[in-house]
Amino acid sequence: MDVQNKIVLTGVKPTGTVHIGNYVGAIKPAIALGREVIANGGHYVMFIADYHAVNYLKNPEEMQLFTRKLACTYLACGLDPNQMIFYRQSDVPEVFEMTTLLTNFTPKGFMNKAHAYKAAVDKNIAKGEPADAGINMGLYNYPILMAADILTYGSDYVPVGKDQVQHVEITADIAGAVNACYGKQVLKIPQAITQENAALLPGTDGRKMSKSYNNVIPLFDDAEVIRKAVMSIKTDSQDINAPKNPEDILLFQIARGFCQPELVKEIEEGLRKGGMGYGTIKKMLADAITAELAPLYEKYVDYMAHYDKVEEMLREGAKKARALARPVLDNFRATVLNLK
Ligand code: TRP
To answer: What b/e sequence results for 192-224 when a residue is b if at least 16 CB atoms lie within 10 Å of its CB, and e otherwise?
Structure first.
């Protein structure tokens, strides 16, 4: 991908627990990509999608706490707010004006097909309830708000997980509909980028790492808590000396996702030959995780303790974001309303 002078944008929803799976699969790659984009003269735009979260998070204290934790997490992991544009979605009113305009170019059928809405409908039907039971318009319109996030800044690329690709495709279609309507390029057509071999870290029980499964290794917590989570990784009862295929072993998959290549190789060989016990490997893994994360955790605690500074950074970020958004929105408004 050529990122020369490109606008690359991505959003994250505040969800409460950030785990090492998020760190390996999303946070680290986002920060690395951001550095590359900036070094190549582009903009890297990264925001906390708090208005998207209202959909499932209606407790204001939690909203505030989750947003806060997420901001401090990204900063602690190395996001540089002076170089990247880092803000809270709700601080940029242009996005919501854009949302209203975009609804008029969005076929309703697109929303019926969006997977989050469809999944909610399927669940209702499976339970024998009315199709739309408990579904609010925030969920239904979710992809339009996301399209506004993307299109308001003239984004070229949108790095997302595979589950979000459909939303970026819908965004491109909506932008295409606007451009077709006025016979010119009013909005830039964005493209999703996914990491092909994104390191997928399974949870401690082998299922997807997720708070709802209670199988996470937390990103920022005391070393003892992290160690305990690592110790709880499910293992089998094969003899310690039996040669094993590392690919079959959950502990190895998690270690491979997190650890440096030399350590991965050491564990791999130990398993293949036999003789390296699961307890030893768990200890190696816990040491590797805490060694990498301890300095970041310290920064995280410091940001959390001085949150007023973080708040200030987010507000500054929103100013930069609005400066990027304004001309795009003005041009769109002028086109739609024939303003001179
Ligand atoms: N929907 C994304 C998610 O659930 C978060 C998000 C909101 C986003 N707006 C965005 C991602 C714009 C990329 C671009 O993860």
So the answer is: bbeeeeeeebbbbeeeebeeeeebbbbbbbeee
Rg (CA), the chain: 22
143 CA distance to ligand 1 middle (Å): 9
Instruction: State what percent of residues in the chain have pLDDT above 90.
Output: 93
> Ligand 1: does its nearest atom lie under 6 Å from the Cβ of 144?
no
| Alpha carbons 203 and 215: distance in angstroms, whole number | 5
Q: Report the nearest atom of ligand 1 relative to the CA of 167.
A: 1
d(CA 160, CA 114): 16
- Parallel, antiparallel, or unpaired: how do β-strands 157-159 and 191-193 relate? parallel
Whether the CB of 160 sits within 6 Å of ligand 1: yes
Residue 199, pLDDT > 80, answer: no
Residue ranges of domains in the chain, CATH in brackets = 7-200+307-337 (3.40.50.620), 211-300 (1.10.240.10)
What is the best residue among 7, 13, 46 to mutate for testing ligand 1's pocket, by most ligand atoms within 8 Å of CB? 13
Query: Which pair of tokens denotes residue 24?
Result: 């390996």
Measured from the CB, is residue 10 less than 6 Å from ligand 1? Answer: yes
Cα distance between residue 54 and residue 57, in whole Å? 5
Beta strands in the chain (DSSP E): 7-12, 43-48, 85-88, 157-159, 191-193
Tell me the percentage of the chain whose pLDDT exceeds 70: 99
pLDDT of residue 198: 59
